[in-house]
Amino acid sequence: MAISPLVQSLKGKLIVSVQAYPGEPLRHPETMAQMARACELGGAAAIRCQGLSDIAAIKGRCDVPVIGLWKEGHEGVYITPTLRHAVACVNAGADVVALDATDRPRPDGRSFEETVHALRAQCDTLIMADCMTIEDIRRGVACGCDLVSTTLSHNKAAIDTTMNDGPDIPILRQALAEFPGFPVICEGHVHTPADAKLVMDEGAWAVVVGTGITHPTSLTSWFKAAIEE
C-alpha cells in the first residue's frame, strides 16, 4: 500500500499521548492544549489525544499532526467505539483517527472492518488501528488502516499509572516480521527514554509515550515509591 506523507513524516519519531483521566486536575481542554504545545516544543512529531474538546483545542494550538480518539465507557470497545465517534473525531480536527481494532462487539453492531470501510466512505482521514493481539494487527493491515499500534497489547489502555513490565517487544517483533515496511507503532508501557530507544532499535516505525511524559501524578508516585523502598 502507499504510505501517506503524514505517516512518512512520523518514521523514526516520537508521538506523545496527552490525556488526563476523569476527575483529575489537568482534565481541561486548554490545559491539554498547553501540555501538547510544550511537547511539540520538546520535539514531539505528533500528538495523540482523546475527546472532541481536547482534539479541537490541541489542533488549534499545535502545528504537528493530531491523532484523535474518543473514549466512551471503561470496558470492551471504548476507544472510538462506533462510526459516530470516529466521524466526530474527524470533524473536531483529527488528522488521524484511532480505532479499537479488536473483534469484540461494538455498541452500534458494526464490525471493525465495517467501521473502517464506512469511515473511509464518509471522511478523508487516516486510520490508526489500536491492537491487542497479532490477529488485530493482521486485521488492521488487511482492511487498509494506515498505521497499526500495540496500544492494547497489555490488555488495557496504553496510558497506565504503574511502572512495571515495559513495552510489549514480542508482539512488536512479530508484527514487524510479518509486515516489513508497514507502519507499526509501539505504544504502551514505554515509560523511559531507554524504553523508547529499545523499541526504535527493534524497528518500530514510531513510538508513543504517554504516562512517562504527560501524567505527573503517576510520575510523582514512581519517585515517591522509589525513595520509600
From TrEMBL:
The keyword Isomerase applies. The keyword Isomerase applies. InterPro entries: Aldolase_TIM, NanE, RibuloseP-bd_barrel. Its EC number is 5.1.3.9. Keywords: Carbohydrate metabolism, Isomerase. CDD domains: NanE. It comes from the Bacteria. Pathway: Amino-sugar metabolism; N-acetylneuraminate degradation; D-fructose 6-phosphate from N-acetylneuraminate: step 3/5. Pfam families: NanE. It catalyses: an N-acyl-D-glucosamine 6-phosphate = an N-acyl-D-mannosamine 6-phosphate. One of its GO terms (molecular function) is N-acylglucosamine-6-phosphate 2-epimerase activity. Gene3D superfamilies: Aldolase class I. PANTHER family: N-ACETYLMANNOSAMINE-6-PHOSPHATE 2-EPIMERASE-RELATED. Converts N-acetylmannosamine-6-phosphate (ManNAc-6-P) to N-acetylglucosamine-6-phosphate (GlcNAc-6-P). Belongs to the NanE family. This is N-acylglucosamine-6-phosphate 2-epimerase.
